[in-house]
Design goal:
Number of helices of chain B: 10
CATH class of the largest domain in chain A: Alpha Beta
Largest interface: A-B, 24 and 19 residues
Oligomer: heterodimer
Radius of gyration of chain B: 20 Å
Shape of chain B: globular
Strand content of chain A: 15-25%
Number of strands of chain A: 10
Strand content of chain B: under 5%
Strand order of the largest sheet of chain A: 2-1-3-10-4
CATH superfamily of one domain in chain B: MetI-like
Helix content of chain A: 25-40%
Shape of chain A: elongated
CATH superfamily of the largest domain in chain A: Periplasmic binding protein-like II
Largest sheet of chain B: none
CATH architecture of one domain in chain B: Orthogonal Bundle
Helix content of chain B: over 70%
Largest sheet of chain A: 5 strands, mixed
Number of helices of chain A: 11
Structural class of chain A: alpha/beta
Structural class of chain B: mainly alpha
Chain lengths: 256, 229
């Protein structure tokens, strides 16, 4: 009898825990791949029972999916333009909050890219250069701007191949199919990539600023965990992780 | 095509070029494979059948991933092209061709194999008694009796290649006029939130697929009457 009571008590406890556990889904631009994994890991240390799912992809694709009712609670875009568009469509439940400025780097898996500069790209031994598709990928647009500002676009364009997002661009370089790529600094500083070839930071004077922002979607409006995570993004540990991945942070998160 | 941009038109033409080339290559290599599969008694025939059928069940990402690695500078295909002095396969039309031939192989081989099996050995034996060489017999006896299967195989291979997306996305590099086929162009329009443009091109592919399948399915009853399959 005592055993059954204990069992019932145990079940009741488990049940109450299950009730308290929240779940949320984050849609994050592919440049956040490594940083977001760390952020979630750190956030979960204070929210051990909550479940956070994260989907990485291209900001444009996420925007389309969210307008069609995708069940994402928070959307981290690589470019502030996409969440602003959602805000205009009244599909958001928070202000559009800038969280970082994105930077681009030259990266190679087979050469020492830290000794390169943009003009190295005209080297005839470099036959393939990967950038993200400038048509819709924010990192691709900045890569094109930088190459144009450096006066190299016409020489380099025939060598370019286009990744669908910044992660696929890095993958083209990592497999050696492109000798060099222009990727996000946040990916290049990851130990796994940094151990191969090194990177060279492209001066941000060569491209327009890449303001990145997140927003709580209408879907996440009633999700307390979404609001907690967004508040966490302003905390010291979260900012330390973001800085560690090369993101330049706004002094305080202001709403725009 | 007043409502299609130059880029859209280019991608559509590229899709048709790719599908046409793939179908021609498959006719040349798929027909002997189908013939062999229909007539061989080798114990390892089943292994060849399985290999040919694999693309029917494999996700395009599996083929795309392995091809990207294999065609890369450290991969076996990449080393082969390097030794032969050929341009690397990734991000090239030739690369898409190799991938698409592999990916559409069952659509060519399986209908042909079925037709050859249904035909049996008899018509060929008769042709042989009339002193027809095997090649002669193939063109004068087999082809006239199995052409509906050829039509099905050609249409399906062509249409399947036009409908390809995943493999092209993974090894193509999205180069306009070289690897940016119509399915990829639609994807790019959607990603850039250009829904109207995406819709125009998508609608064309929708109509195309419907007409192609109509052609294949409308033929089915006639095939039964002529007693081939």
């Amino acid at each position: 009898m005592k055993f059954i009571r204990l069992l019932l008590l145990g079940c009741a406890l488990l049940f109450s825990l299950a009730v308290h556990a929240e779940t949320m889904t984050i849609a994050a631009a592919a440049d956040l791949k490594f940083a977001m994994d760390d952020l979630i890991h750190n956030f979960k240390s204070t929210h051990p029972n909550d479940e956070i799912k994260v989907v990485y992809g291209s900001s444009g694709n996420f925007t389309t999916q969210i307008t069609q009712g995708a069940p994402y609670d928070v959307f981290f875009s690589a470019d502030i333009g996409f969440p602003r568009k959602l805000a205009q469509m009244k599909m958001t439940a928070s202000p559009v909050i800038p969280y970082a400025m994105g930077r681009i780097v030259l990266w190679s898996a087979t050469r020492n890219a830290s000794k390169m500069s943009l003009s190295s790209l005209t080297d005839p031994s470099i036959t393939r250069i990967a950038i993200a598709n400038p048509k819709h990928a924010p990192y691709g647009q900045r890569a094109e701007e930088a190459l144009r500002s450096a006066g190299l676009w016409d020489k380099v364009e025939p060598k370019l191949v286009y990744g669908e997002n910044i992660a696929q661009t890095a993958q083209f370089v990592q497999t050696g199919n492109a000798q060099v790529g222009i990727i996000a600094l946040s990916l290049a500083v990851n130990p796994q990539l940094a151990s191969q070839g090194g990177y060279w930071l492209i001066p941000d004077s060569l491209h327009s600023p890449m303001e990145q922002a997140y927003v709580i979607t209408s879907h996440g409006a009633e999700n307390p965990l979404a609001h907690q995570f967004v508040a966490y993004m302003n905390s010291t540990p979260a900012r330390a992780i973001m800085t560690q991945y090369g993101f330049v942070l706004p002094s305080v998160a202001t709403t725009k | 095509m007043m409502f299609l941009s130059d880029g859209d038109l280019q991608s559509l033409v590229l899709s048709l070029e790719l599908a046409g080339s793939v179908t021609a290559i498959l006719l040349l290599i798929g027909t002997p494979i189908a013939w062999w599969l229909a007539h061989s008694r080798a114990w390892w025939k089943v292994l060849v059948s399985v290999t040919v059928a694999m693309p029917l069940v494999l996700p395009p990402s599996v083929l795309g991933f392995y091809l990207l690695i294999a065609m890369g500078p450290q991969g076996p295909l990449g080393m082969l092209t390097h030794t032969l002095g050929i341009a690397p396969l990734p991000f090239s039309f030739a690369g898409l061709l190799v991938a698409s031939v592999l990916y559409a192989l069952p659509f060519m081989v399986q209908p042909l194999q079925n037709a050859f099996e249904a035909l049996g050995d008899r018509p060929l034996e008769v042709a042989a008694t009339l002193r027809a060489s095997p090649l002669d017999a193939f063109f004068t006896v087999v082809l006239p009796l199995t052409w509906p299967a050829f039509l099905t195989a050609i249409t399906l291979s062509f249409a399947h290649t036009v409908g390809e997306f995943g493999v092209v996305l993974m090894i193509g590099g999205n180069l306009p006029g070289i690897t940016r086929v119509a399915s990829l162009q639609i994807f790019d329009h959607v990603e850039a939130l250009e829904y109207a443009e995406a819709n125009h091109l998508a609608l064309m592919l929708l109509l195309f697929s419907f007409l192609v399948l109509l052609l294949v399915y409308a033929r089915q009853p006639a095939r039964r009457q002529d007693g081939v399959s």
